[in-house]
Write the structure tokens for this entry.
Amino acid sequence: MALLKLSSTLSTSAVSVVLSPPRSSSPASLTAHSNALSWKRSSLPSQASPLLSTMSSRALPSGVASPCASQATGVSAKLADDSSAPHETKGVKVQSGEGGLTKVVLSSPDGSNEAQVYLFGACITSWKTSDGKDLLFVRPDAIFTGQKPISGGIPHCFPQFGPGPIQQHGFARNMLWVIESAQSDDETTTLVLSLQPSDYSRKIWLHEFSNTYKIVLGVDKLTTELTVKNTDTNPFSFTAALHSYFRADISKTSVAGLKGCTKLDKPYEDPANPIQGLEDRNVIEFPGFVDTMYKNTPDELLLDNGLGTKISVRNDGWTDAVLWNPHLTLNSSYKDFVCVENAQLVPVELQPGESWTAKQYLNPV
């Protein structure tokens, strides 16, 4: 097994990082996926379930430094030059990607699968399986400048999912992650990234933390493992999600496995008043705008992408799920993707020194 430690080399030579405070402290300008279902507790019926009351108060209870609405990060995450790139190991190549942002290209040991991971946001933007199909989707309006989150692939939402006291979906998707290690064996190629607080994150959220993100690529298998550790002297709470974009023909796309789950459905006509109910459909289709949060979801969902591939979306530790397609609010590309998101919508509270871990397993079936 080949093993490579890259963190010190990459952080000091291969990547130039410039940090500056957010550009604006005005309220967030939310795009089509302000869809993350915001609502007011006062608008809920008196018989609201614990799901509604808990989720409606999912705002971070402490540690918010200031409102931070701007998606601008002030982070430049570019590969300095080829000669300063860290040494590579089998199945792992560090390259300059779109906009000069650093990306890591992973290959499965047999060469049949490939994944691309941008260090900016630790965003997996591509996963090609043994049939040559890329199962992930990056929106045509995605910007690779290091100034906005990458719209597509598998972005992170941390320490907040959706709108709230800080910027939409938090700051992890706006920051430069660092390579900790890369290794390969006979069956898988593994990349481990980490995220630590910076001047930028501390202007938004006052807590100290250490996140690690393990990406494991095998033959038609893509596994991710996110660990959040509280390195602060005080407890903190957070919500999180993997905002996964899957390539799809939305007219033929369906998701199975959510029947019986409690849901909050945000109707297109009245987004300020989400509707609570129980999912009664065996298979969920996407004939129009869909933005629905599901509570206490099963370990596995089955996505039929309408393009001839069914994808098992399994999890261990993610308690909830979100389905999203913006329909005509994103006319340029809504027909070509669906978001099936493993999420932690009820806040997790970590005491100093405690950790939380959640895994996602993707594979075509």
User: Anything to note?
Assistant: The longest strand covers residues 337-350. The chain is about 5% helix and 40% strand. The chain has one domain: 2-27+34-364.
